Structure formats: structure tokens, C-alpha cells
Amino acid sequence: MYVDLEGVRLAYPAAEKKGEPVLALEDLTMGIGEGEFAAVVGPSGCGKSTTLRMIAGLEEVTKGTVRIGERDVTNVHPKDRDIAMVFQNYALYPHMTVERNMSFALRLRKVPRTEIKRRVHEAAGMLGIEDLLHRKPRQLSGGQRQRVAVGRAIVREPAAFLFDEPLSNLDAKLRTSTRADLKALHRRLKTTTVYVTHDQEDAMTLGDRVVVLKDGVIQQSGTPFEVFSRPANRFVATFIGTPPMNLLHGTVQREASAAWFVERGDGGARIALPAKLSASESVRDSMPAVLGVRPQFLSEPASAPDPDRTLVVTPDVVEPLGDLMDVHGKTAAGATVVARIPAHESMPVGEAVPMNVDADRIQLFADDDPGVNLGV
Cα separation of 28 and 5, whole Å? Predict the structure, then answer.
């Protein structure tokens, strides 16, 4: 089943009698294809969990339409929407065994006992928790409890799965392995899934499509590669990617068919723009602009640096990451930048170091709000 939100608006009544309503979402339109895994990501308060709750029917839509498949479910009770939701805090019944937790919704529906047993054991087999069926939640680890919560959703065989930050309580190692399990599970079940998270790594590794929200408005919707490689605006550029994209403020200089970005400030870098940006009509001479380059696309030159492709950085902090290291420093004009490069022990702190800029990976944004990407 596909999930569609069309022109959805959600406003909460104002706390004061004469105050304006508090707007949570405005004109949200989002289509999630059948069998698609859509990851909705954004900072706290952006409206991502609210979006999920509207799909589930736990929030009443002020305006717009919510559809699951061919059905308009905007005013349909949550229990009749044929969805299964997995919460951050697992929400297991402490007095019930794993088996009874997983089968609870089916027993309420009066599903035949043999069918309940089949579904529970099939889901337990998928999740590797067959030997836990007779335990109670207090006897399980956090990762095992999360698997039980997912299993409880699976046995319902719903039209869509809704996940509300289900991995946020897990440690880093378990989080990584559980992500892989969820991806494999989705590939096997092919059930439409909406996954809400504040963690962009979860969104990028799990989602077939990533939807980036800010202040209740979709900033960009696309594949993980698209939102990383071609961010729609400066917010997406700095929110997606670790470390965040480096941004330099300056102006454009044009000479015939070529264009350069000149960093603002004394000693600012002068970087040649790639042919695609040089040929763009939206890139005009003397216009203010913001150049973006990800830390992964800065590198130490193997030979004499090209002055049109070089950013001189003075490192002040070096963070070792095993085979890589993050070099934090400042440009000659005083802008803060980070370079993620192969690790070595000879990086001089406090001394200027030339860094090659991968010209094909340069992004150029408008110097305003929201700062749209001029190359998209």
C-alpha cells in the first residue's frame, strides 16, 4: 500500500484566548510509494513525529488529506487504518511473555489460535528471538526488547509500518547491527515503511528515500545519494553529512565563460567554479554567494597545489578516527572549515596547509535565506 499526505496542515489551539494557533505543519505534501522505505529526518521540533502520528491517526489533521492505498483515512479511527507502529520506548506489557506481547493484537481481533502461532513463530524466526518467546521483558536486553516490538508489528501483517525513532535507546554497536537487520527485514517483507529519526546516519543507511523536514516544511525529498550530493539548500547541506558541509561566504567573479568564487575577507581564497556552474545563468558576476564543499572533498595535494583549486587552512585541532582524521582549522580569511583526510602523524597544528578542493564536488548557494543551491 502507498501512503499519501496531500496539503496537510496541523495547527494547535493557542494557549492564550487571543493568541494565534501554533502551526506544527503547513501544506505538507508527501507521497510514499508501495513497498518504499521512506526515512523522515530533521532536527527536534521540525514536525517529523507529528507527521507519523497523523498517518497513524493519533493527531487530528486541521486541513488536507491522508490516504493509505486507495482509502482516505483522514477521519478514520487509528485501529481501522491497518498500520503497525513501533515506538522509541518499546511499549511492551511487562507482565506478559514475549509470545503473548507479540500476539496481543491478534488475540484482540479473534484471529484463530493456529494462525496466531504461525505468525508469531514466523516473525520470531525472522528476528532471531525464537528462544526468547517464554521470557518477560525484564529478562531481555534493550536490543532484544526492540526486536520484540518489531515482531509485534510484523505479526499484524499491516499495510504500512511506522517507526518512531526505534533505535535511539540502543548503544552504537547494537544500533549499527539493528539497522542492518531492519534493512534486511524490509527487503524481505516489502511493506511500505515510514521511519522517523533525528539521526541522519539512520536515515541515510535505511531509507530508499530521505525526506528532510525543517519547521514543518519539506526541504528536500530524494534518494540518500541525491540529498548528500545535490542538497537543495544550505540547511540540507549542513544537516546531512558528518562532519557538516563547509560554507564559505564571498562573491562570484566572471571572466568570459569562466567563473570564480572569491572568499570574503583579507587573503580570501579564489576558487575556480566547475563548468556546470560557470555556464549557469543564475551565477552572475559580482553576486554574493556561499560556496559549499564537504570535508571529504578536501585533500592534501600530492604535488604542487593548483592555485585555482586550493584552500589554505591553518589547523587548530586534529581528531584521529582510525584510518581517517578530521582536521579543524581556519582559512586565511578566518572561516572555520573541517577536512576529513587519511590519517597520519605529521599534520602541523598552527601552520598553514594547502588543501585541494575537488572542483567537481563544489556546491554554490544563494547568499540569502533559504540559500537555494544554484547548481540544482
Answer: 7
